[in-house]
Amino acid sequence: MRGKTTIAEIVSRQLEDMIAEGALQVGVQLPSERVLAERLEVSRPTLREAKQILTSKGLLTSRQGGGTYVTTSLNSSLSDPLTNLLKERPEFRYDILELRQTLDSEAAFLAASRATNLEKQNIKEKYYDMVKFHLAAEDHVASALADINFHLSITEASHNIALLHVTRSIYDVLLSSIENNLKYLYTIKGIEKHLTQQHKSILNSIIDGNSKEARSAAKKHMEFVNESLSNMDKEKERHNRFLHHTSVLSDPESK
After folding, report:
1. Domain around 48
2. How wide is the angle at C-alpha 103 spanned by C-alphas 101 and 106, nearest 5°?
3. What is the C-alpha separation between 168 and 54, in angstroms, rounded?
4. What is the reported pTM?
5. Beta strands, E only, the chain
6. Are residues 38 and 144 in the same domain?
7. Per-residue pLDDT of the chain (255 residues; tens, 9 = 90+)
């Protein structure tokens, strides 16, 4: 029979909740042992024991030079081979877009009603970081990173632990998908203005606390991306058919 729960286990659960809810984010360093022990109102030896429990679970890690950090591997906890397949095969872009439409619209809906002022400020900062890259429309890799971090900040503000961890677990897949999408979207003249306005609508709805409008804005954004990519694919197929027909009908002797 298991013994009584120790103070260290209680503290470890507190820290675990902070990680799960996004208060302690991936890759972030924990406050110093002295400061954290004071805030949690426990002794430093108890805190060390609690941190060791989380380290054994893979949630915390110590780095050379000092300091304890939330492990960065939390963002890629799904090791299913299908995850790598989705990341490496651009032809699955529409499946991922369908998934994003569900995840992002629900996250926006929840964030609009649950986000704190601090979280709203974080979303706003991530928005302006993203806009800077989108308006330049040059570096689709940097733009993709800024784009996904904007959407992730919204998911964090949804205060839905399951939604947050599902999104984090496929972070690499989503990032790769956005990179591939932007590489093609940036070839469309004026696309950056459309993307900026759509993201601004999502941001404003969340700031205003309008859940239904936030969900609708996120949904419309994903539908726009889906339709734009679909039209590009159709145009590419049409052009390839034209080239094929031209090669079939051309006179070999005239070459």
Report:
1. 7-74
2. 95
3. 19
4. 0.70
5. 60-62, 68-70
6. no
7. 456 789 999 999 999 888 877 778 777 889 999 999 999 999 999 999 999 999 998 889 888 777 899 886 655 544 455 555 555 566 678 888 999 999 999 999 999 999 999 999 999 999 999 999 988 888 888 999 999 999 999 999 999 988 988 888 888 888 888 988 898 898 888 899 999 999 999 999 999 999 999 999 999 999 999 999 988 877 666 656 656 556 666 655 555
Asked whether residue 251 is domain-assigned, the answer is no
Q: Return the axis-axis angle of helices 33-40 and 44-56, rounded to nearest 10°.
A: 100
Amino acid occupying residue 105: S
CB 211 within 8 A of CB 110: yes
Q: Strand pairing partners for 69?
A: 29, 61
Per-residue 3-state assignment (H helix, E strand, C coil) for 34-70: HHHHHHHCCCHHHHHHHHHHHHHCCCEEECCCCCEEE
The amino acid at 106: E
- Whether 85 is in a domain gets the answer yes
